[in-house]
Every structure is written in structure tokens, then in C-alpha cells.
Amino acid sequence: NIVNASILCCTAEVCPTRGEILVLDEVHWCADRQRGAAWTKLLLAARDGRFRHVRICGPNQAADLLRTIFAARKALEDRSFVTCRRRSKLLFMGVITASSSQNNNKKKKFEG
After folding, report:
1. pLDDT at 106
2. Of 22, 77, 86, 106, which one has the greatest count of Cβ atoms within 10 A?
3. Is the pLDDT reported for residue 66 higher than 80?
């Protein structure tokens, strides 16, 4: 029974919207047209205090959006933004945009 699980690791789509701790990784997915609602739902639940502790992980480009979302809730004054350096080199070969990603999903490899 996942309701009584002490630790639950799942995709954002099936994650409960309340609990003790939320660790939300890949927060930049909230901008995705198909899957973004799942991340947005969890961000709003976190903003509304439905989790006691919240850790959100994502690229620096998401910081302004997160500040905007959480600024709307002044009661959460103990929030902080911590920036960490990537410990390994991240390489990506190719270009993905919202419109091209739907077409690329049918391909097995990325062209770069």
C-alpha cells in the first residue's frame, strides 16, 4: 500500500500531492506541453504547504519561475535557493525544441 510507504519513488504524474517530504527533480519539465501539468501540480502543492520539507532540483534557468511561484506564498519565509555546480560535464549533441521533440520521439537516436 503506497499510502503507508515510508519512502515512495515515482514519476511526477503519480506522485501524491501531500506528504512529509517532496524531492522534485527535473523541475524544468513543468514547461513541457504534454507532461508539464504533473510538475506544476506538485509545485503548487509545495507552495501551498502540503509538504513539510521540499527540495526542488533543476537548471538555473528555472530559478525565476520558482521564485515567482513561491513568492506568492509569503508564509513560507524559510525558503532558500541554493546553487550547486555540476560535478560532471554534461554533453548534448543535437537540438530539441518543443515542436521538434514530438517528431524526434519517433527516432531512436538524436542527430547532432
Report:
1. 45
2. 22
3. yes
In the beta sheet, which residues pair with residue 86? none
Which run of H or of E encompasses 42?
helix 36-47
SS3 108: coil
**Closest residue by Cα to residue 81 from 91, 93, 92, 69:** 69
Residue 60 CB neighbours (<10 A): 10
pLDDT tens digits along 68-105: 888 876 655 666 777 777 788 877 777 666 554 444 44
Q: Which residue has the cell 506544476?
A: 40
- The DSSP code sequence of 47-95 is HTT-EEEEEE---GGGHHHHHHHHHT-TT-TT--------SS-----S-
Give me the residue label for grid cell 538555473.
60
**Residue holding cell 537548471?**
59
